[in-house]
Amino acid sequence: MSKPCFVILAVLIGFSNAASAQTATADQRGACKADYQKFCAGIAPGGGRIVACLNGQRNQLSDSCKKALDSRKQ
After folding, report:
1. Taking 50 as the threshold, does the pLDDT of residue 17 lie above it?
2. What angle do CA 11, 69, 30 make, to 5 degrees?
3. Backbone angles phi, psi at 45, to 5 degrees
4. Distance in angstroms (rounded) separating the CA atoms of residues 20 and 3
5. 31 with 68: CB under 8 angstroms?
6. Residue ranges of the domains in the chain?
7. What Rg do the C-alpha atoms of the chain give, in angstroms?
8. Which of 33, 26, 24, 27 lies closest to 41, judged by CA?
């Protein structure tokens, strides 16, 4: 395989992985939206603060949110 073809292939694979990561993030947000609004609404996004807040309330979170948080760890 020529070097330009390899570079193009690597870029395409990188973009496809980024798109799937964004989808997972959107799914995780959806799973935790109600829990976020209930327990962490005053937390500013960024730096992992929302995830830390949700993990601090783990005993009270919905099962779907717990699963979404667990999937972030893998």
Report:
1. no
2. 80
3. -65, 155
4. 26
5. yes
6. 3-73
7. 17
8. 33
